[in-house]
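In keeping with the milestone schedule agreed at the kick-off meeting, the structural modelling team has produced records for the first pair of proteins. Each record is given below as a sequence line and a structure-token line. The laboratory manager (R.T.) confirmed that both were archived under the project's standard naming scheme.
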Amino acid sequence: MKKLLLLGGLLAGFTLAIAGMENTLPNPKQAKISPQEATSSAKSQVGGDVLGYELEDEDGRLVYGVKLIKDAEEYDVKVDANTGKVLKVEKEEEEED
């Protein structure tokens, strides 16, 4: 009986944890600029071609993370999802095997 109660408690906790994670995903409706505007801002700053983008929550701030490639180098550009302003440009480091 104790094992059954313990298992039930663990399952309930796991379910709540998953439900909590779903609520922390950024809501695209909260972004004031479109993904196309974000990628355009990133390209105007760095140049190159867009590999992809995603809407992210960075320390409570809604941003688009835009991946670009230019001259065989990858860049991660953070664009404010409300203003379209480029916040940060990071050149991705090459991984060594």
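The second protein of the pair:
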Amino acid sequence: MSSPAASSPSVAARMSRQASRDTAQELAVRRLLFRWGLRYRVNAKVPGLPRRTVDILFPGPKVAVFLDGCFWHGCPEHATSPKSNAEWWRGKLDRNVSRDLDTTRHLAEDGWTVLRFWEHEPPATIARTVWTRLRPDAPLPDPAADAAVPGDLP
């Protein structure tokens, strides 16, 4: 399906600047995980689906972490539908959600644990969830260290 023309120059400019990786949330989560001694791969190819990527991948324990944008991935709380080119956007966003489900299913069938988070979730909460999944018997790192993460609430 080809892309329609942008509805205005400002829309075109805004969409061209939309980050697909290394968002503020991703960087904050990765900083915490790294600070806590966890090592991972960033934007790694999904095993068996080379045109798809995982935001944060832990290959040894087979844990894949996705940090999904509310608009692009259909957050039930914050998703919106554009008014311009509405039919095209509805199809595009529906395909994104379908691809997410397919990727999750593919990884789960291959023995991976898939963790998906929305962009509005606090980075420290996400990092603690990932830590708990990877190190269930280890104590959580010092929560005081989490306060310095931008975009997170104390």
